[in-house]
Amino acid sequence: MSVAFRRESDEEHKEPRFELPVPQGPNLVTNAGLALIAERIATLTAGIAGAQGEAAEALRRDLPYWQTRHATAMLTPPPADGNAGFGTRVAFLLNGKPRTIAIVGDDEADPKHDRIAYSAPLARALSGAEPGETLAFAGRDDAITLLSVTPLEI
Prior knowledge:
Blueprint: E1 27-29, H1 31-50, H2 53-72, E2 73-75, E3 88-94, E4 97-104, E5 115-117, H3 121-126, E6 134-137, E7 140-151
Parallel strand pairs: 1-2, 4-5
Antiparallel strand pairs: 3-4, 3-7, 6-7
Helix pairs in contact: 1-2
């Protein structure tokens, strides 16, 4: 029989699985972000203990990511000067439409719930600004009008 028609095993036909990529830059976290990382590690560790086969393998593959994120976490307070930045909730007008977002760490980011990573373009545009400022964004000089900045709960 030709080698082309012979099936060695199911293993050779599986899709490759990769570890989660660690984001570039410092691992800034809020208190909530640090708690989220610890919770993920505990959930994965408990899951590995009770899982077998591919399920356990998937959990083992994700655990080093969260352990690395925990080891490199830098608890970061909001800016003391009241400007927009990491750890703040920012209300603003974007092209005339009101929006409110929280600027958080990479692992806490959830755009559907208006929580964006500090490394996102919108967060970078807002960082360092104070209420009343008009900022450039997405090619427009007056795209953002900053309304208010409040620190996130610690």
